């Protein structure tokens, strides 16, 4: 019997995923083109509602640089995660984890599980760690693992459950009155974690999402001749091979390089950095401190500095990480422009496109259907404004007022937003960029697999949000 005849056959969902992947590889544009088309579509919609060309252009230009702090934060998520994970000690941990799976399918599910569990603690760590785990698994010649499907599994943390965990921007904001805009605080009051991410209903929803996502990973994983390894992708193989030469410092050649090879600078910088981190974590609750992206990135850079020990080793790791941030740096400004077009370009009636979108959904809702209507709306808007915290600031005032008016549990309304807002992440290149940079892939390479996840998640998420919401009763806002 020849090997082709003995190779395991792909199941129906796996074949559908492969067809979706093949379609995406042929027709799905580069993430930059996708973002640019988003600008055009939203601008045309704003003009259609009566916004003047001047107002539309001004809104786009004013918003273009509005995400620069967030852009740099995301770039440093990639750099910090890469620097830490490629340090010799941490790389050995990842390599040890990569020795656990015994099959390609098992490896893909393994990556998905680790990605989703770590995302409940920190979405940034999940994104980078998951990508580096895939790279370590890809180095195993004995593992028949599809690189595309593994990359899609590494993305599940951010594409499925991250907002149900401790790094949920909306839940964090609602639990901290000092961080909330006064107008929003007056509508919602303070909503503690016990009323959002720690509800038993939230735990059930999260567990169901993890279980179903892993099942989809298993049944859609290509096998046999359908498997594509890292070496089959231009630009990906050099990410997957072991970088022994890059990790080894060449001999010092000049006297001026002494400080670059000495740990003295590392110790001095690390002492100051650790001092600041001690003060930061002493002054704030652990969850609040680590949820701050600046603190998170600072901690990772400090750890990377110490783990590499010598400045030259640290700088070499940063240099290898920077190319992975290209997509982030050039595309995030376009999303800032989209957000501004939605919220700043006023039509002939003096209202913005975001207001018109919200009015359509809020107007058709009642107490029984509010969960479904809000879920659909949050998912649709999330595709155009892919920023959990920023979008919540935009969306919360009117949807939470509607929740009050319709007597819907306010904490569950936050969870409806969290679960539904994550849905478009599964096919939106915005959040894929750091992971794609780590893997050396393009969005088109993994979106065929994440699209299958989206098709399964939509009815699952909306159905459970509605069903579990029936078990909760309305409580008036609690003011601080």
UniProtKB/TrEMBL annotation:
It comes from the Bacteria. The keyword Chaperone does not apply. The keyword Transmembrane applies. Keywords: Membrane, Transmembrane, Transmembrane helix. InterPro entries: SCFA_transpt_AtoE. The chain crosses the membrane at residues 31-52, 64-90, 110-137, 149-171, 198-221, 258-279, 285-307, 446-469. This is TIGR00366 family protein. It comes from Lysobacter gummosus.
């Amino acid at each position: 019997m020849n090997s082709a005849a003995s190779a395991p056959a792909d199941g129906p969902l796996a074949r559908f995923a492969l067809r979706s992947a093949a379609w995406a590889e042929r027709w799905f544009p580069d993430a930059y083109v996708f973002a640019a088309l988003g600008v055009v579509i939203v601008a045309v919609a704003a003009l259609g509602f009566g916004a003047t060309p001047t107002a539309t252009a001004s809104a786009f230009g004013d918003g273009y640089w509005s995400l620069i702090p967030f852009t740099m934060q995301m770039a440093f998520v990639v750099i910090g995660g890469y620097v830490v994970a490629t340090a010799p000690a941490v790389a050995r941990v990842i390599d040890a984890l990569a020795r656990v799976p015994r099959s390609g399918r098992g490896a893909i599910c393994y990556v998905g599980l680790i990605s989703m569990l770590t995302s409940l603690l920190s979405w940034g760590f999940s994104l980078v760690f998951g990508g580096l785990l895939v790279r370590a698994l890809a180095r195993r010649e004995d593992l028949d693992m599809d690189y595309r499907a593994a990359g899609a599994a590494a993305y599940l943390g951010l594409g499925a459950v991250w907002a149900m965990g401790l790094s949920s921007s909306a839940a964090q904001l609602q639990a901290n009155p000092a961080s909330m805009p006064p107008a929003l605080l007056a509508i919602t009051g303070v909503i503690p974690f016990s009323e959002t991410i720690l509800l038993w209903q939230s735990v059930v929803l999260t567990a169901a999402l993890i279980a179903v996502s892993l099942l989809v990973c298993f049944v859609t994983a290509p096998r046999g001749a359908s498997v594509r390894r890292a070496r089959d992708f231009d630009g990906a193989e050099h990410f997957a091979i072991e970088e022994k030469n890059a990790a080894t410092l060449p001999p010092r050649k000049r006297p001026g390089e002494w400080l670059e090879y000495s740990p003295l600078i590392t110790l001095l910088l690390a002492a100051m950095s650790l001092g600041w981190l001690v003060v930061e974590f002493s002054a704030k609750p652990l969850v609040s401190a680590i949820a701050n992206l600046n603190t998170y990135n600072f901690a990772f850079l400090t750890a990377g500095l110490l783990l590499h020990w010598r400045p030259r080793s640290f700088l070499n790791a940063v240099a290898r990480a920077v190319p992975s941030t290209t997509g982030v740096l050039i595309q995030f400004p376009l999303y800032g422009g989209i957000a501004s077009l939605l919220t700043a370009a006023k039509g002939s009636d003096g209202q913005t496109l975001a207001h018109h979108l919200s009015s359509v959904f809020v107007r058709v809702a009642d107490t029984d259907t509010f969960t479904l209507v809000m879920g659909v709306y949050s998912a649709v808007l999330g595709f155009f404004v892919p920023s959990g915290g920023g979008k919540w600031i935009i969306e919360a005032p009117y949807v939470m007022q509607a929740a009050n008016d319709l007597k819907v549990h306010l904490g569950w309304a936050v969870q409806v937003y969290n679960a539904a807002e994550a849905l478009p992440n599964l096919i939106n290149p915005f959040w894929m960029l750091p992971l794609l940079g780590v893997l050396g892939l393009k969005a088109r390479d993994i979106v065929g697999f994440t699209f299958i996840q989206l098709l399964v998640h939509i009815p699952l998420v909306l159905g459970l949000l509605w069903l579990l919401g029936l078990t909760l009763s309305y409580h008036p806002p609690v003011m601080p």
